[in-house]
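Consider this one:
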Amino acid sequence: MALLDLLCSGDHPSREPAREQLRVASWGGYQLDECDCFLISVPQLPEAARIRHGGGPFSTVDVSRAGEGLGQLDLWVVDGYLHSVDYMTYDDHEMLPDLEDDTLEPLS
């Protein structure tokens, strides 16, 4: 939840609906067996509570450790709802970052 909170804290105009959805969201399972990418489950909400986003990642966080760039976390929105978090690595760092060891920086 700390990771999702960070991903929903940017300055996107739809930040508030994303944070509202985060309050009622739950774990949706892993998207693929071979990676830590995961799904987000959000119950049906009124049209006004949906996120207005035209496609692509809704927000992105840069992941680094000791100044070395490891990858990016992308929060995806599908049909107005929080959908999934994907971790795209730069090298062989395939596991989701550890919030204690890694630095997470929202991209502008």
